[in-house]
Every structure is written in structure tokens, then in C-alpha cells.
Amino acid sequence: MRNILVPIFIFLAIMANAENPFFQEFNTTHNTAPFSQIKNSHYEEAIDRGIEKANAEIKQIVDNQSAPDFENTIVALERVGNDLNRVLGVFYPMLSANADDEMLEIAMKVSPKLSDYSTSIILNEGLWNRVKAVYENRASYKLDPEQTTLLQNTYDMFAQNGANLQGEDRETYRKLSAELTQLTTLFGQNVLKEMPTYEMWLTAADLDGLPESSTAPAAEAAKEKGREGEYLFTLDAPVYMSFMKNSTRRDLRERMWRLYTGRNTSGEYSNIEVMKNIADVRRKIANLLGSPNYATHSLKRTMAKNPEGVYKLLNQLREAYTAPMKAEIAELNAFASETEGRPFTMMPWDYSFYANKLKTAKYSFDEEALRPYFELDNTIKGVFGLATKLYGLQFTQNPSIEVYHPDVKAFDVNDADGNFIGVLYTDFFPRASKRQGAWMTNLFEQYVDSTGVDHRPHISIVMNFTKPTADKPSLLTPYEVETFLHEFGHSLHGLLAKGKYASLSGTNVYRDFVELPSQFNENYLTEKEFLDGFAQHYINGDSIPQEQIDRLVASQQYGAAYACMRQLMFGFLDMAWHTTTAPVDDAVAFEIAAVKPVEIFAPVEGALTSPQFSHIFSGGYAAGYYSYKWAEVLDADAFDFFKQNGIFDKKTADAFRTNVLEKGGSEDPAELYRRFRGQDPSVDALMRRDGILK
Question: Which residues are catalytic?
Fold first, then answer.
């Protein structure tokens, strides 16, 4: 019997491997993920196996009898975990874009395993000793800038994450890291799970002021739930934004605003205790590693360097924008009072509505009036065409690449000479399995292997635009086009990567540098030379008149001070949570005090930002939200340089591509920017763009 059973077990093991698509290289076009073959049950076993193989690879490095050097230790560690990365490169993008309850449960199960795996690397004394030996002898190696950066990053990864801890401190660090992973995962899942529970059912009598682009999808949504003749409004971003801008019903605007700002503050999906615990665990980790607070610890590897560098920027902008913001609100109050025929005090649920009306009154500008010019298919061609004009890229839909949802499309990206650059997935419409907002994701990152083969990236850009209806295409607002341009900028940063090491490739850069390529792209929204290439009225084919573009620019400048102060509010709130040196007791009082320096409206009971602030509590921007404004300074300065030379100037575009987009995190970003621009950035270009400086 034994002689028979052994072959059977071998056969069963082979069959198990064959059934899990993650257990071998993907045999598909460009080695893209075979989504139709992947079942939820595959993820956890593939992650378990990936961790096991990665640990074996690390053991080989530690057990290597040769003296540690750059290749056998630093590069070897960089190459660890390809099997694990293959499954995580699918799992986490799908968790955001196409998840179900089972996947959310899997995420909770695997997060402590992944945390323990990461922590075990950091706390592996044998590995740390080899890394430290290479670092201490770095002067003896002839390393190029990219190799130097990899060595420094590897050393810092250990040194700043507990490698020097001894005795009980090591186990404490391990437990805190695992706890933090579970808490951040729970925070994100609470946000995702609670969002679909909010529904506002209206009748035809409640729709005054709302455009057809809002009411038609609401009618469709109600019909899908068997309530024809009614209208279902959700908190999906395009639904919420349009409602707040256009509904004349102040009571309904308040109701919608309170729903939106009251999310995750109570009940089953409350994040109040979760976020307090996240902040406290981060503080404890920072203290364990020798820093007084988490921000001091985490900002060491940023352009800002420390909390003082962040507050210097935040306060500089606060001082410059506070007076213009107060003038904007005063003007808006006067306008609302005149409109209503009575004294009027602006509340937060009134701002978007009256700001929209004032734009129309002052500039004859109505954002909804520009929707017909931004039909989605044409806009895709225009946004892709920007990369063609600047960098010579070509985008061709490839039906042989599997997608994970019928709404998703996949494109081959090639350069001007026909060389393959990468794969781009586009995913534009809301659904219950998808979180709110817009983002870019790396499913597979660019790197060059030990044989010299350049493995090209697979990138996705994900949005939540209004879906087309039976009788109308998807039409975007200028804001949504700007969002598209933004995420496309991130995708170009990933696609054009030209590095040796995945950990330094594409968007793997300092947090306060990562938004430069995305925000740079947004500048093209108001350039007629760009818009004329695609923005035609979907019915009559007319281009957007220059007068409308001028009004768009003027209207953007009108709200610039308010928008800046709102971003500063997020930045101050983030820094408050991560510079605290003691546990937070009262989250409401804490948030109110944190945002007081940039307060626009008086606090409203029941409304909080922190419980939904996924960027800082589950999205990797802890003590890093300021980076959006930091990058705005960079992007305004960079585009100002383009405008001096021509917005499609080939020489300037080549310099931006070579020094910013291709380099990833291979060198210090301040040096890369100086190499492109020829000087350090100044806030003046941003203030001129916002109309603060004339």
C-alpha cells in the first residue's frame, strides 16, 4: 500500500498546484493576471506559500558563508518574495476595486501573517548583521546612484523599524506591528462597509435644481431596486458632489451633508476607538524606536525631513491664504443674503451650492454646462493623447488581456518606436464592490532581473464616474476630468519607470514627491491647446470656446483660498494625530482643536473628518497628507517652466520624463527636481496660479 499511496499524494500535490494560478508564472499575454481563473480560496493559500518561500530565500541569504557584499545581501534581499508579490499584486488591488465580504474576511486573516512576515525580516539578527556589514563598508564598493540609494533604503528600513531593538523590545515591536496592521485594515473595511448603507430616497417633488446627469442615474438606481418612479441618491462621490452643488433644497443638502460627515462615528462600523488606537499604537512604536512621536519617526525619509519642515509649509500657506479665504466667505454670505432676500449665515452644507451659483453669476460659468464637452470616450482619447504629445506613448486596447470586471478595459502601452512599455487597466464606474474615490495601483512593478531582462509594469487607474444611461453617454465635469488627469499622471510615473530595482521603481518615491507627476497633469485642464484636441460637444461637435475656459480659470481661482484652507485642515488634522505624545481621550475635542488654526466653519455636532480619513488611518499617508500641498508647490513651479517653453515643448517634456518620471525613487527627489528645473521650487508659481499673487 505504501508504494501506491506515495505516488497518489504526489499526484494530489501536483493537482493542487495546478489548480491555484498563483503557484506558477502567469501564462498569459504580458504575464497579466488570469482573473477568470482566480478564486477567493486561492488567495490565502498562495499568500501562505509565498511567505514560506520568501522566508526560505531569506534563510539562504543569512546562511551564505561568503562575506556579505552588495550583490549577495542587498540585491539578494531586493529579489526576495517574487511569488508573494505576484499574489499581493492582485489581491490588494482587487480588495479596493472588486471585493466581496469573503475577500474582506481574507484580508483580516492574512494581515497579521503579512505583518509578522515583515516584522520577522526586520528582527532577523543574522540578516541585519549582513546588511549592516555591507553598509559600514559601503565606501569600498563602486556603487552608482541607484545602487547607493538601494543600500541606504535597505539600511534605513531595518534601522528605522526596530532592527536595533534588543530583548523584550523586539517582541513588543512585533506585537505592536501586528496590532497596527489589524487596526488599519479594520478602519478601511469599516469605511468600505458603511458607505453602501446610506441611501436617500426622493420623489420628483424633491429634485429642484438637480441636473439630468444626477436624476437619471438616481432613477435607474431606484428602478434596479424595484421602486420605479422614485429616485435613489447614495453617497458615491459624483452623486454627492452634484447634489451638494445643485439641489435648491437646503433641508436635503443638510441631510445629505450630515450623512456624509457622520459616517463611521457610531454603530457597528464606528471608527472612533479604532482611530484612537491606531494613533496610540503608532506613538508607542515611535517611542520604542527613539522618537517622541510618530511624525518625527516617519518623516525622516521625506523631502520635509521632520514635523518642523511640514509645519513651515502649512503655516506659510495658512498665513498667505487665510485673508483671501475670509474674503471669499464674506462675499459668499453677501451673495446668499441677496439671493435669499434675508440675512444669511453660510453653513458647510451651503458652501458648494452658493459657490456654484456665484461662479455662474460672476463668470457666467456653470460646471454642468461643460459636461457635454467631456464625453468619456473622447476624454479618454484626449488624456491618453497628452502622453502621446509629451512622451510619444501609444495606447491600444488589447482584448486578449483578461479584465476583472466587464467595466474594465486593458491597453497595451508602447513608445514612439513601438517598444512595449506596459499594461494599463482602466476602471471608471462605481459599484458596490468598489471603494469610493480615485486611485492608481501597481499590479506589477517594473524591474530588471539578474539576466538583464526588463520586466514591464501593469498599472490600473480607478475612478467613480457616472455611468452612461440607455439614452445618454457618460459626461464628466471639469473636476472629474481633472481627477482623470491626476490618476493618469500617477500611471505614467509607473509606466515609464526605468530602474533596476522594483522597490525604487515608478511611484516608489518619497510621499511628498509622489504627487508631482499627478498634479502636474492637472494643469492641462485649462489649456485650450490641449482641450481642442478632444473636448467637443457630444451633440454638435463644437469645441469649448476660449471664453468658457477663461471663466473656468477665473472660477477655479475664486475658490482657491477655500480649497487651500480645506487641504490645510486635512494636513493639520493629520499632523495632530501623529505628533501627539499621549493617548487621545476625546476624539471630538481633539479634532476641533487640531483644525482650529484653519477653521472655515464652526464645528457642527455629529460631523467629524477623522473617522473616514482613510488616507491617514489605512491608506499610507500617516503624517504625510501635507504632501499634496508640498507637491502642489512643485507642480505649479514645474508647469510654469513648461509654459515658459511651450506646454508641449519636446525638450522640456524629455527633461521631465528623464529626471522625474523614469527615475522613480532611485535618487534624492530634490536633486532630481533641480536637474529638471535648473533651480529649487518656489511657492510663487502656486500663489500666482491661485490668484493670490498677481
Answer: 487
